[in-house]
What does this fold into?
Amino acid sequence: MKLHQGIFVLVFLASFCNCNDDGHQSVVIETPSGPVRGYHEALHDDLYVHRFIKIPYAHPPLGDLRFKKPKPVGRWTDEQGIPDKYGPACMQQEIGLNLEFNPECSEDCLHLNIYVPGDVSRDKRLSVMLFIHGGGFVIGSAGEYNGQRLAAQGDVIVVTINYRLGLFGFLNLLDPIANGNYGLWDQMAAIRWVHENIEAFGGNPDSVTIFGESAGGMSVHYQTLIPANIGMFQRAISMSGVVNRQSIAKNDDLQKVLNMISDKTDCKQENKAELLKCLQKLPPADILGIINVYELMTPDNFTVEMLMGPSIDGEFINGQLYETMHDRSSPGTSFFRSLDFMSGTTSAEGSLLYFSLMPNFQETFNFSVQDGIPRRALCEAIIPGLIQELYGNRPDLSQKLCEFYTSDKGNDDQSNRATDFYGDLCMVTPTTSALIAHGRKNTAHRTYNYILSAPSPAPFGPPPPPWFRGAGHADDLYLLFDMPNVRTENRTDERHTTLSSRIIRYFTNFAKTGDPNSEELPVTWPPYYVQTREYLDFDFELSVNKDFHVDATRIFQPQLRELFRNEKQEL
It folds into this structure.
């Protein structure tokens, strides 16, 4: 047994209470941080878990701790853990997605939840999967993701975490006094808390996989490039999100935020120390009101501005990691390549486009997204707007992309080509880049790629237009978690249940050994090699294919052409 930062190993209390006042069978365990109460919850097929929820991993970031790195929680004496109510989500705006899960929000939100399969025993030394939620760094919470099924079927401990969002998590005053990325530091603090405490829950701190989706997948990739995380986890899964061209705010965008603060509050930016003190005293609602994402959207253009996300702070993020992750001499890339890595996307990530096109944009270009996305809107606004934002003034690239994503097969196909453009730009090409950066000449650690093709019975976000085809963004989450946002009762059949069981088995096998395969699974999933570029297609019938949207990747990343030119060359 290990000592934890000078604290002697506490005796694990396996003393089950008959029940608590609410009738839940419970167990209290002693962790290095203090006592935690968990609750027995039966599932089906004789499976059950113990759920430990609302466990603090850092001090509440209130008052002088607002816009600061998380402060370690230390040790508590009173029991933590409540029977049936998750802790509050971190502060966030309602952005109009009409999600059914609307949690209470609070700045006192730095909690995590733990799901332990079966009985809790320190001797089990189970592998651990720590999930980082998505939501564009502005919405989401750990409470949306019930990890019971994943834990019970996969026989792993599942952890879900909150982290600060929006300006609370990423305000950068362009000064060392408050230089952003507090949400990423929160994630790191939660990962460290799990490493130091998970043995008490029966987990193995030397077999931890971090995984996340969308902004959570991007966060996972960030964490794999930070050498301070060495030893905290051994594997990583980035789902529909990696470090990309959009993922770091530019200084011009950060200055826009400072200007908005001056316009909308009484806090002025001449003296950064005084500005910080003023912002720390504002009511939380005033902070939320500084940026309205809809005010940033113009009716005749389509751009991406990272005003409330990661930025270069000189400490957590030193530069454009999207470029430097291919530099095998850098400490961050060396750490990344010392892990086992899995990454993939859905087949139609561009579903994000159809519910991002605002009514005034549709009116300007005289179309309704329900009827389709016309070539004119794609070629005159969507492509050049995004290319200008991400690549600079490149009319040649915009024209080439317009030609590539133009279809002569009718309105429905043209509309899906438009969503393909958005998905390829934002998700597919960056994922390919990350896989190459990890797998190229890396014989010591494994790389895996997947695509989810099976459409969800209850797609994420607004109902998809009738022309849309494929599995959209976030449509993989219901296969791993029971989610209040994804109401699938009476809308799933045996195909979905079977696919869910298979994905859980592949993912948890990977978390345990670095190899997703086992004898009971019907298809052998080959590693991703730069020469072969194979992936597992998660459809109702599994298959191994290669080169998902490779022609698009060649256009977006010319520097990768040499890697694709000759499959037999040693890379």
User: Anything to note?
Assistant: The chain has 17 helices and 13 strands. Confidence is low (pLDDT under 50) at residues 1-22, 566-571. The CA atoms of residues 523 and 542 lie 7 Å apart. Residues 345-565 form a domain with the Rossmann fold fold (CATH 3.40.50.1820).
